[in-house]
Amino acid sequence: MTLSGLALAIGILVDSAVVILENVFTKKEKGCEDSEAISAGSEEVWMPLLASLLTTLVVFLPIVFIDKSIQIRYAGFAFTVCASLVASFFVAQMLVPVMLEKFAKGRLYTAKEDEKSRKRREKFQQVYGFLIQKSIQFRWIIVPLSFLILFYAGYKISKMSIDYPSALEENEFSIVIFPLAGARLEANDDAVKKVEEMLSKIPDVKMFSSTVRKDTVKIFVRLKPKDKRTYSKEEIIRILDEKGNEAIKEIHDDYSLIMDQGISSSEDKKLVLNIFGHENDVLEKLAREVAGRMSKVPGISNIVMTDLRKRPEYSLVVDKGRAALYGLTVNKVADSVHAQVRGMRPTKFHELQKGEEIETITRLQAIYRQKIEDLKLIPIMTKDGTQVPLGEIANYYPSTGPQTIDRKDKYRYVFVKGDVKIPLEAAGIAVKEALKDLKLPDDYYWRYGGSYSELMEGKSQLTIALILTLFLVYMCMACLFQNYIQPMLIMLTVPMCSIGVWAALALTHKPLSESVFIGMILLSGYVVNAAIIMVDHMNHLQSQGVEQEKALIQSGLDRLRPIMITTLAAILGFLPLAFNWGQSSDLWSPLAVTVIGGLISSHILTLFIIPDFIMITQDVKVVLRDRSEERRVGKECRSR
To answer: Does residue 92 contact residue 17 with C-beta atoms inside 8 Å?
Structure first.
């Protein structure tokens, strides 16, 4: 996480140095001496750079208050980014001016441009100046239009489903075989051999290993690297699923297998549904009904349920009438059978040298409890001290029982789960729709289990963290600007970045995830930097007597170059992580895509829309001032 944080921060570490160097050379271009350009250029921008640093740092504060798993996952990332940004700020403010004064004093010069480059630069500035003038002129049209696009993008993002990062490994999967309940170990081994024979004929299989037990059978399969395979992983799984089930049913019709897609099919990527109730037979019926409906939902596959296979067993039924003739009760018979077959602990053996206690269990020898006929001869002691064979008062009947009984919150439950190939939230909504007309008996209900509830809780916590981040960023700027209106206008760049976020996620087909939320939280503190630099320069020009509209246009022209450089540097810094390269790309790619999209849209809108907002605010102030003046004059006239 720390290395990834450093990789993500590389693009934004140069911001402070870029702004200072650009301002120094701007002063030099205006005719200042080297020392004056270095001194004035550095001092002029320290406050907006400090505001930019603080707004970027405070975005990580809400992470302290959200889910522990998110804290653990992103704590190293947040610490690395914060530490590197603080270091880069002090280097830019202290080291860069000193190095310019020491090594560049007397040798500062502006680059000599050829005629073509100069005309191209002037043309670009003229075009931007013309566009910002037209934007201000038609501000009452452009601003409402921008808000319409913003609301549409915000609506589309709110409707996107959240999901966990997708697979980090594409070369592994497992085959899980469900054997016949009570089957011999040799039969399970025969079933495995049939599947292994199929795997050995697939050239893309690198290795496989099998685990064979009486109740569970699992085969782990590793494929060759993706670029060296003839068939895709999905094609191999589909072939094994079809042919494998046919092969193992030659052993017994009750044998079946499913494909567990390895790391990509971890519990985080499964939709788990728990059904609660009292009776196992009813729960089994409901589980099969739910599994049938879930299998019809697009994007959900490999439906697995609680092991509902019945285990063969014998039930001991006591004839209460005959037992009463001997003065015995069912409880007395059960305790006696349990003590002789299962065993009881009469005492403990104390090993003094080692200081250990060894349990001692007394029960019948194995030769007296191997067969049902042996168990019928178990002696039951009556009240008068005589012994009665168990077969005289009870009998054994073949029956079946559940493999396991699971309980949660004092309720029995069974689970149904499946691999999800669509966003987990979308799968949950689709399953809920499929089960809306499912009739449940009284005291029976279902709830989502696994990681689904954690995912939805994390989404709500991250949303709260994002709102808290916006509040903290605003408070930082309000303190530094000592103004409430301008920070609020600057904060408008934050929702504007949602346009780019939505467009980037839609183009790359990525769902919402924790990484996307972390990217939006990071954006909320970073995208305001360009507006801070621009508005601060506008205030500086206005303090020199420049009109507000001219100051807006001039601040845009003066700060166009550093804004473009810092934005381009940040985008290029995030770009390598946006590509799906490497095993951890699915963790960081959504974050990088989110930041890149937000940076592009927010900085374009900063250069054009922020001046419109400022002018509209001024228009509103003028209208309110005129109305206040009219009311004051009216009161004076009436008083006369």
So the answer is: yes
pLDDT tens, residue by residue, 546-579: 888 888 888 888 888 888 888 888 888 888 878 7
**Is 333 within 8 Å of 393 (Cβ atoms)?**
yes
Residue 4: both structure tokens together: 């990834």
Strand partners, 413: 276
- For tokens 């020491």, the residue is 102
Token pair of 584 as six digits: 């951890």
Rounded Cα–Cα distance for residues 345 and 361 (Å): 5
Centroid of chain to Cα 636 = 64
Name the strand (E) or helix (H) holding 196: helix 185-200
Does pLDDT of 265 surpass 60? no
What residues are paired with 419 via a beta bridge?
270, 301
φ/ψ of 298, rounded to 5, equals -60, 135
- The C-alpha angle with vertex 604 and arms to 142 and 496, in degrees rounded to 5, equals 65
pTM, two decimals, is 0.70
Lowest-pLDDT range, 176-180, 281-285, 543-547, 556-560?
176-180
Single out the residue of 297, 304, 298 nearest to residue 272, CA to CA: 304
Inter-helix orientation angle 528-543/514-526, to 10° = 10
Residue 275 and residue 286 in contact, taking contact as beta carbons nearer than 8 Å:
yes
How does DSSP classify residue 61? G
DSSP-assigned states of every residue in 88-145: HHHIIIIIHHHHIIIIITTT--PPPPPHHHHHHHHHHHHHHHHHHHHHHHTHHHHHHH
